[in-house]
Amino acid sequence: MSAYTALTTAGYRAQVRDAATLFFTFAFPLVFLVVFGLIFSGQEVEETGRPYISYIAPGVLAWGVANAAVFGIAFTVMQWRRDDLLRLIRMTPTPLPTVLTARYVLALGVGIAQAVVFTAVSLLPVFGMELHSAWPMALPVLVLGITAFLGIGVIIGSHADTPEAVAAVANLLMVPMAFLSGSFLPLDMMPSWLRTLSRVLPLRYLNDAVSAALVGRGDWHDIAVGCGVLTGFTLVFGAVALKTFRWSNRT
Predict the structure, then answer these.
(1) Is the CB of residue 195 less than 8 Å from the CB of residue 55?
(2) Structure pTM?
(3) Which of 50-76 are b and which e, b meaning 16 or more Cβ less than 10 Å from the residue's Cβ?
(4) Would you say the C-alpha torsion 220, 54, 145, 182 has a positive or negative sign?
(5) For residues 103 and 76, is the Cβ–Cβ distance under 8 A?
(6) pLDDT tens, residue by residue, 162-175
(7) Residue 239 and residue 249: Cα distance in Å, rounded?
């Protein structure tokens, strides 16, 4: 417990003291919301008749939370491994699950804070998002989404050896996934083959479930499917992450 507390406290202090990290975690996704929200203010998606904000706000929120989860853990694992901090931790009685749990709890806290801030901004009259009655279900959906994307981040951080490599690999995954999963543009506007391709991407299910919960763009079935699929991705990514985890660049 003392090791867990120390690791969690150290991670929190590093997070709040880094201005660049705070900006890209909280402000950067809001920039997309403001830009797209103002551009498409008052407009509707022709294919469905729904306002653009019902696509933009949940989609950008899901991408922002997933992006923060991937980058946050990937950079930490890479830096700790490169500086041999993980090797030193391994020489203590601290097991790997304790190390990852400390980062996991921190990532959950950051993700929930992101969601609260982002939702509050989306509800402003200038954007006009309206909450659906099932909005509390967004919380378990976001928890599962963060968990799944943390697995991706651990895998990247275990193999990328420099900050540049982490950024390159993470962006190579997250930027195309954002567009193909409907975070920035409604999937209803895309060709059928792209909608089919999006079904193999975890962000698609996070988007769909968050949208169904927050704005009612879907039903309880969409939320249940999203939670189930994200749980499956969590198990797969988690197993790969634990199997391929590297404590040091020497191993």
Answers:
(1) no
(2) 0.86
(3) bbbbbbbbbbbbbbbbbbbbbbbbbbb
(4) positive
(5) yes
(6) 989 999 999 999 99
(7) 21
